[in-house]
Design goal:
Layout (H helix, E strand, L loop, with lengths): L5 H21 L3 H26 L3 H31 L53
Length: about 140
């Protein structure tokens, strides 16, 4: 099987990194931003493995294992933080977290703020098992 040249691997790594950077900068949802950061790390890992294979040593592959390990630890911590932030504000929109900035920094104002959330209709309540629902007498029109 013919071996692909290194520039094919580097192109795939660059595309992964670029898509991750664009997604990170363009989105406001914390989970999407987190996934885009992970995509950027995977693009770097592809490039490290490609250079290691091209040079014929295992240093890039060993470094990639460390990058993947750190990314897994970061994923666990980031998801826990995202859960805590969601519980506090009931939203994953980054613009709601102006209170986390440094004290001397000016707040960032969005050009197009998100519309306010509509209140959800209450969920229907089901009858408990074993109890009969109340019957309503219907009036018949004669």
């Amino acid at each position: 099987m013919p071996e692909l040249p290194i520039h094919h691997y580097l192109a795939v790594g660059a595309v992964l990194f670029a898509l991750g950077a664009i997604g990170f900068l363009a989105r406001r949802n914390l989970i999407i931003m987190f996934l885009c950061a992970e995509m950027m790390l995977q693009g770097v890992a592809v490039n490290l493995v490609a250079f290691a294979r091209y040079r014929g040593n295992l240093e890039g592959q060993a470094f990639t294992l460390f990058v993947i390990t750190v990314a897994a630890c970061e994923a666990a911590i980031a998801l826990a933080l995202i859960l805590m932030l969601f519980r506090a504000k009931q939203s994953l929109d980054v613009s709601l977290w102006q209170s986390l900035r440094e004290p001397h920094q000016e707040p960032i104002v969005d050009e197009e703020p998100l519309p306010p959330r509509e209140k959800e209709a209450p969920s229907p309540v089901l009858t408990l098992s074993g109890l009969e629902p109340e019957h309503r007498e219907e009036k018949s029109h004669v």
